[in-house]
Amino acid sequence: MNKILAIASISLRTTVRSKIVLSLIVILMMVIIGLPLSMKSDATISGEVQILVIYTLGIVIAILSIATLWAGCAAISSEIAERQIHMVVSKPVTRFQILLGKWVGLVVLNTALLCVSGLAVYGLLRWNTRPSQLNSEEIQQLDEEILVARRQIGPQIPDVDLEAGKTADEWMKAPDFPSEISRAEAVEEARKTILRKAFSVPPGATITWKFDLPSRLRKDQPFHIRYKFASGRMEITTIRGTWTIGGPDVPGRATIEGNDTAEGFHTMRVQDDVFSPDGTLEVSYKNTNDQRPVTIFFPPQDGISVFVYSGGFEINLVRTLLILLLHLSFLSAIGVVAGSLFSLPTAAFTALYLVVLLKFIPYIEIMAARKSFVSGPGQQGNGFLDIFLILFYRGMRLLVSPLKSPNPLDSLGIGELVPWSWVASVFVVKVVVYGGAIALIGRLLFYRRELGLPS
Amino acid sequence: MIEKSDELVVEATGLTKIFRDFWHRPKVKALTDLDLTVRKGEVFGLLGPNGSGKSTTIKLILGLLHPTQGRLRVLQQSPRDVKTKRKIGYLPEESYLYPYLTGQETLNFYGKLFDLNGRERKQRIDQLLEMIGLKHARNRVVGEFSKGMARRIGLAQALINDPELVILDEPTSGLDPLGTRQVKNLIVDLKKANKTVILSSHLLSDVEDVCDRVAILYGGRLRVTGAVHELLEEQNRYQVMLPELSPDKLKRVLELLREALGDEPDVDHPRVSLENLFLDVVEKAQTTGDDSGVKHAENVAEFLGHTGEEKKTNRLDELVEQKSDGEEALPAEKEEGAPPEKAPEVMDEESRRAADGKLKNFLSESADD
């Protein structure tokens, strides 16, 4: 362990004294201070916060990702090129310890830079949103919806599996049902259709959702209901409806008239005690758009959610930064291993290719779902090229899909909870599983590499 | 001669190294079928012009390259074994140091790689900085060092683990004559401390001064190996050193020599080497209190000599015993197929004894004078 720390500390000192860190801090501060000044928000307090949190921190992370990849690639490759590695490898140090030492050095450096950036953003955020600059409504919005960590709770989803199975079987009996579609695919499609139907509200009809709320919900904190819907007719975009919060037996039951636009999120603040004795919350919506009747659809995945207070903004920021740090640590592993195997330009190119690959995960998933590439549409490809491409994309999907992860800054910017379980899952996937696999491959290949070859 | 394997520090048999290109096709045969042994406690010189395979041999010993063919054992272990490296100190051809670290930090870093505890590291660093004369520059970054100063730090890091085997690649490059002499003295001290030294150098005089045995490589093949004194000794010629003589006595000596040899002997005044002359001048200048740059220390770091003290005495005793038994302390390896040594052909035994007797009588007389 001492050797790993010694190597890490040497990398750090070299980076600090070569003024790379100083240049990075200057660039990051320019972004943090300059970007909010150069970008126009929608003049709301939430827009201003989003610029600082989502865009500014987003660009900071992008800069750190590039710097990490470059520094990771250079960490060992430059020592091989300048032969300092000869002095290290001739000491009782394993190649794995060298890899780990360089990685730890980068992780420590990223931790420091993220802390500096996080503190700067937080300080600027607090300065820009100081009470003297805001009205009471903005202060309330800030305290309750933005600078807070709220848990998002979706409604109970009806169990439609049995019904979906029956529907799919009926579909498959039809003579014109496409033969290449499997039963599992048909069941999934049937499930989606049933849910869409369950979340649609025809004119005059009422839909009711039930939410299971956490037992340790803070009663003194208000909660919010966020919803969005789509209109069945494109020309009708503003829909009138009536919301009822709380079940029939709840004393604080409230009725709210709404006149909302389609395709956008809307939020209702609810303060009263509207919970049922069993801890659930019942919410109903009646489509009262009588003059121009239209059916509306709430998307099953995010059409309606309840946001309840779960913690402060600061700890949410820390968790977000931790997830970003874990992501940077994963990039460091890619960079260090690439740099231990190739020269700096080749390593940088290879590492960049792998990172770009991660950005294309949705595309890979779409391609992997295809049944043919050169055969006609809807046909099962049986040619060599089809089989090869199908196997290639499915293999790629298997390899990279677990790395798909939403951006925690999106949640932080809208006051949504970034739970510890998210941090843990990113740690397990990106650091333990993928980072570990990269380290093992790197160890094997770096051990075999002859470092004394003439350049 | 059968050698005990625990006495062999480096044992190479049929060692071959072929460098390959990207497509794995053979590109250069850097080393061919090298058989080499380095024994415990000796100073072994690796000689050869550029591209002869010296550096390849050293890199193979250090595990920086892997043999294509053949067997290589270093300290009875694989050269790639981490345990082997614990006992090796290495000074590369150029001191590949971290330019942003100070001299002290550099030594501290390498000390940590040997798992030396903080106290031990501090003691050794102090002694080594004293030894290499860079105590005053301990907090300067290495990037600001002159080549000679960087070389000294490189040398210090090679010794921080008190190694059993010290591999020095061009240790005197970039050093002034004073530093060169100091390094040579250090090598002699390391030998006295029963450490094995492998020295690769282009400066043949350095090698000649300190090495017990040498190997000369050319084109990746071993051409000659053996004890330095045996390789350099001209068995069929003699050199006689005389004190200052009056012209008359010199004339008589020459007559005797002419009589003994039947030929005109070469007579000249001996010359001191330029190195010795330079060192004398500097030494005198230093007594006046003047100084330039590096402070030159004389003492070898205490921890380096300490462990080998007992062994040193034993080894010296051993050498003395071997000498008194009429054996060679470090007998030369003979190349297979090498021509037999020629017997000196000067004159018949009787005439030679007579001439020798006259010469001895004369010398004792002149000493009495």
Give short descriptive properties of this protein:
heterodimer, A: about 450 residues, alpha+beta, Jelly Rolls, 2 domains, four-stranded antiparallel β-sheet, B: about 375 residues, alpha/beta, six-stranded mixed β-sheet, three-stranded antiparallel β-sheet, about 40% helix, disordered C terminus
Strand order of the largest sheet of chain B: 5-6-7-3-8-9
Number of domains of chain A: 2
DSSP strand tally of chain A: 11
Strand order of the largest sheet of chain A: 1-11-4-8
What is the H/E string of chain B?
EEEHEHEHHHEHEHEEHHHHHH
Uncertain spans of chain A, ≥5 residues at pLDDT below 50? Answer: none
Oligomerization state: heterodimer
Q: Strand-residue fraction of chain B? A: 15-25%
Run of helices and strands of chain A? HHHHHHEHHEEEEEEEEEEHHHHHH
Radius of gyration of chain A: 27 Å
- Terminal Cα separation of chain A, in Å? 32 Å
Number of helices of chain B: 13
Tell me the span between the first and last alpha carbons of chain B: 49 Å
Structural topology:
The complex is a heterodimer of chains A (455) and B (369).
Chain A: H1 2-17, H2 20-38, H3 45-81, H4 84-89, H5 95-128, H6 136-146, E1 148-153, H7 161-173, H8 183-198, E2 200-201, E3 206-212, E4 223-227, E5 230-231, E6 238-245, E7 254-261, E8 266-270, E9 280-287, E10 296-297, E11 304-312, H9 313-341, H10 344-359, H11 361-369, H12 384-400, H13 408-413, H14 420-448
Antiparallel strand pairs in A: 1-11, 2-10, 3-9, 4-8, 4-11, 5-10, 6-7, 6-9
Helix pairs in contact in A: 1-5, 2-3, 2-5, 3-5, 3-9, 3-10, 5-9, 5-14, 7-8, 9-10, 9-14, 11-12
Chain B: E1 8-20, E2 26-39, E3 43-47, H1 54-62, E4 69-74, H2 82-85, E5 88-91, H3 103-113, H4 118-132, H5 147-159, E6 165-169, H6 177-192, E7 196-200, H7 204-210, E8 213-218, E9 221-227, H8 228-232, H9 247-261, H10 274-287, H11 302-306, H12 309-324, H13 349-368
Parallel strand pairs in B: 3-7, 3-8, 5-6, 6-7
Antiparallel strand pairs in B: 1-2, 1-4, 8-9
